[in-house]
Amino acid sequence: MRNFTLLLLFISVNFAFSQVLSEDFEAGLSLPSGWTNNDIAGGGEVWTFGSGGEAVGYNPPNTIYYTDGLMAGNYALFDSDGYGGTIAEEAALESPSFNCSGLTAVQLSFNHFFTAGYGGIGYVEVYNGSSWIEVASYTGADQAESSFGLEEIDVSTELAGVSNAQVRFRWVGDYSWGWAVDNIIVEEGPSCFVPDSFSAGTVTPNSFEINWADSNVGTPTWEIEWGLQGFTQGAGTSVTGLTSTTYTFPSLTADTVYEFYIRTNCGGSEGDSEWIGPISFTSAYDCSILSIPYTENWSNENLYLSCYSAEDTNADSLSWSFNTGVNDLDGDGTDDNFINVFPQSAGIAKDDWVFTPPFYGTAGTDYTISIKYNSVDVNATANESFNLVITDTPSSSATNQTTIGSYSGITQAGTYGDTSGNDLITQAYTSTASYTPNVDGDFHVAIHANTPAADSDVFFILEIVITETLSVDEFDLSTFKHFYNKDLKVLNLESSNQPLTNVEIFSITGQNVLQKNLSSTTGSIDVSQLSNGIYLAKVNIGGNMQTIKFVKH
Question: Which domain holds residue 513?
Fold first, then answer.
């Protein structure tokens, strides 16, 4: 049971120049002639060779190495996840010697897929005739920081004029993920290099900042063309004459996927680089539309990335992460989304917080917080514990904190992938706590996983529900009836002794999708324009509130 997140993926085209090294591993699933498999750690865990494009950590079948890593046919692979956690790994795939003595500009390119997380590091190094020099490295706290696609690296400073040059790919890890590499080429470099090392800056619902690096000398400029995902180059919005390696895309629609192409303008005889693209990015979810009643079942990863925050309090690289549908918990053939804390191995204590977006609370009003959760025995026997906390800011050091629930002894309930009703979702735990703010204002619901090392394994959350609590004297249920007419697509409301004031309908994610004022003891709400699904209706009768759930279909 592992998780994975893809954020940016890009495709680029390579110009043909004089090549001094080319390896595509198509001769067979063994070490190519002249190459060396250097087991630096000495534990026997070395590079292997594969085909089929099936990425480490993904449920089969998949072709992720081909579709996102841009590899084809055979490729070199270090499968740290497959080796397990018994031996620390360090192994280098080293090329034969090649001659760059006649070159003044040298470029190294390759396709790859490096899966970040669990301490894995990938180093790209070149030999300049006397020592190995690092020219690139890949790592990250979790899978959201993975690197993949075509890499083009200017190694002129290191290799130009060197007659006995080499390149190697050095993996360091210990039961981490893995790294696949293909189509390794060293060639005469272009006169104008493409931008590289893309990273996201500030992201909002209406803007997205992209940063890049550039190895060209002088004062190059850059041009970008962008649009909605799938747009045809030549029909997008063009931006030219950029003098900074940062650009912010403006006037975006929230929670929407866009793409862009980019190239360098070197000017003069050096001309322009080739275009890189499309590179995809997603605008942030608009967290301001979230309100109570609120249900989070992790159906939208962008909502989690935009509106939730996690904190690794003990700085051990173990933290909450979003599971992107690679685990079928109930065996129904559909992978399930959830958030989890996944220790790399047994015996790792948890001190990890995750915070909801802010919700506005009214002083004296009771709110009910319900969570659904479970644990899994993967590296050890889980016996989890956590606190449910209300904070005024999304921080473990928030000034105002109120613990509303403490839970322990959470062992695995059910069987992973069971199809007989004894699965991890059906058998999951549900706990409910209440919170009454003293003053009006925003509050966050925090889950603090605090399992000691001896009992720690995988702990995950399936659902968070926040509702306003009603006391019996606030609303007499016997005076109120409701039913949904699926033929007419109408929600019918009826109060026996007080007029209905108004009704607000919310999606399962808490978005207000319909509101209607009422003035009699009955009301019919046309919901035909709403998408099929589960909705919550907040009914006001004489100043008293009742929340009901109905399914529009």
Answer: 477-552
